[in-house]
Amino acid sequence: MPACCFGFTSLLQFPAPPLAAILMTDVLTHDVASLETLSASLVDRLARAGYLLATAGEVAPIFRDWCVGRAHRTPDCAELARYWNDLAPDRFMGDGGRYRRRRHAVFSAVAGARSLVRKPHQAHFQTTNFNQLNGGIERHFEPVDEGALATNAFDFLCELLLGVFGRCAPEADWHVEMHQFRIEVGGDIATGLPTPEGLHRDGVDFVAMVMMGRDNVREGISHIHDLDRRELAAFTLAEPLDMALVDDTRVLHGVTPIVADDATRPGQRDLLVLTFKRRESAPDQSPGGASGV
């Protein structure tokens, strides 16, 4: 059979895939490309400066694409944020403050992973080298609700952050800690301190700070300093999915106190913090983690 006839016959015998399949392939390709492009940009910025601010304007469109590419999931950042309404009081505040609520979870991830594996619930510990206010003791917090971990928003953030930090340290297996923080003001709480210990490092490799929501608060400005305490940047995480990433080995970070915008009603600042530490640490070393952020 002539070659031209062979090609024509093959087309008759093996019809093209349905248009819907082609469109879905295009969506998946675009989704992967969008996430990869964002990850590459964040890696470059983090490597150059040791910190970065990624606004919701950058992140939210990629999240929407990511959801479409995964069987049309729903962008549910608001659903994840709802889990900040049921946090327990932080009973370990060295300053006696009653302005902080939180929950905590611990995970692991092997090199190249795109998702986290939850570990049995355990205490949070930091040495006093990294947290003079609240360190040096085991702090037992209520666990993060499984519902929060089942949201598309949490899945997306894990995949994004594992991609970024995984490119920064390709061979690393990770010990990851998740902290839900709510700082409250109003009533008899005039001032809330997101980082009562001031400028600090957390004793890990990388820290991600993701805004979940702010209501009726002013200030809460994030400051980044080099290890000689010279200021490098100051910005406000204002919108849901605004995020700051820091290389904890290279910079210090801290946040100014918040006050109620309208003193007649309560206000709060809700933050998701994920800390990443290489698991190659010796057994007697503290895993580290977030002290307030």
What would you say this structure looks like, in words?
There is one protein chain. The chain is 28% helix and 28% strand. It has helices at 3-13, 19-49, 56-68, 77-82, 146-149, 152-168; strands at 51-54, 88-89, 100-109, 117-118, 124-125, 138-139, 174-185, 206-215, 217-219, 222-226, 231-235, 243-247, 251-255, 258-260, 267-278. Mean pLDDT is 85; it is low at 1-30 and 282-286. The chain has a single domain (16-278), classed as Jelly Rolls, CATH 2.60.120.620. It starts with a helix and ends in a 15-residue tail after the last strand. The chain is built from 6 helices and 15 strands. The protein has 293 residues and is α+β, with helices and mostly antiparallel strands. The longest helix is centred in the N-terminal third of the chain and has 31 residues, at 19-49.
**CATH fourth-tier homologous superfamily:** q2cbj1_9rhob like domain
Q: Helix content range of the residues, please?
A: 25-40%
Q: Specify the overall morphology.
A: globular
CATH class: Mainly Beta
How far apart, in Å, are the first and last alpha carbons?
Answer: 72 Å
Q: Mind describing the biggest β-sheet? A: 8 strands, antiparallel
> What class, by secondary structure content?
alpha+beta
